[in-house]
Design brief:
With 252 residues, the protein is an alpha/beta fold. 37% of the residues lie in helices and 8% in strands. The chain has seven helices and four strands, in the order H-E-H-E-H-E-H-E-H-H-H. Strands 2-1-3-4 form a four-stranded parallel beta sheet, sandwiched between helices. Helix 2 packs across helix 5, helix 3 packs across helix 4 and helix 5 packs across helix 7.
Length: 252
């Protein structure tokens, strides 16, 4: 069920145990070879595939394209909600659905910069509603759902999601190849975080002059299809578990 297609009496009539999926992504630079709307395009395609299988069980909110992208601001075209603004935005979105009686809220994320504030927002929501035992509040990132794609075929160079690297470039090649630039002259930008295991404060320009991180030159549309299938199947599994939750306890 698409929230955007419904009128208010239809929304009011829904079972309030219906899971609400809120997609959150970004609009930011993706190297010199990818469109700035990459994160939103990829998450939108994952959600589209999920909706084909779960349309009658899930209420799909429209995709929120503004994310926390301050670390990309050195590259023109990036638009960002600063971290504390983004925290308030996610808190407010969830509170709207809770006000209307819904009990199962899932943020589905498509941008790495949203992970820390997204988890914090979900934590804050639970603390404000700590006396309720009927709520399920989740924050998930789509590429953490399902199997590891690099374990399904042996020609992936990346072992994890990067930024405008092999995985994302492959996925855009699958759905919008005309928006991908020349890959032949791109070089590898390693995933190295110096001073590990400490987490270092960073901007994208600290790590990459071009804006990409990973192995975009190894991308292909065939790999992109496998990535979409794998991630969408993982999200379908997650949302099915949310829909099947008994509404009473900590465990599924």
């Amino acid at each position: 069920m698409q929230l955007t297609d419904m009128n208010w009496p239809q929304v009011a009539a829904l079972d309030k145990n219906t899971p609400v999926l809120i997609p959150v992504a970004a609009l930011e630079q993706h190297g010199g070879h990818m469109p700035v709307f990459t994160d939103s395009m990829l998450l939108g395609e994952v959600v589209r595939r999920v909706s084909e299988k779960l349309d009658e069980r899930i209420l799909f909110a429209p995709l929120m394209w503004l994310g926390n992208s301050d670390h990309h601001m050195d590259f023109p075209g990036t638009l960002s909600a600063p971290p504390r603004v983004y925290l308030d935005l996610l808190n407010g979105l969830a509170e709207n659905f809770l006000f209307h009686g819904f009990k199962r809220i899932v943020f589905l994320n498509g941008h790495g910069g949203n992970i820390v504030p997204g988890r914090q927002a979900t934590f804050e929501l639970r603390q404000r509603h700590r006396d309720r035992t009927d709520l399920l509040l989740l924050f998930a990132t789509y590429w953490d759902c399902g199997q590891r794609p690099n374990e399904l075929r042996d020609d992936f160079s990346q072992q994890q999601m990067g930024h405008a690297g092999e995985w994302e470039t492959s996925m855009i090649l699958k759905i919008a190849p005309h928006l991908v630039g020349d890959l032949s002259k791109l070089h590898t930008v390693d995933f190295d975080f110096s001073f590990s295991p400490a987490i270092r404060g960073w901007t994208t320009k600290d790590r990459s002059e071009t804006g990409h991180i990973g192995f975009p030159q190894h991308a292909s549309a065939e790999k992109g299809e496998l990535l979409f299938q794998t991630f969408a199947d993982g999200v379908v599994d997650l949302m099915t578990r949310v829909a099947d939750w008994d509404g009473q306890g900590w465990s599924e």
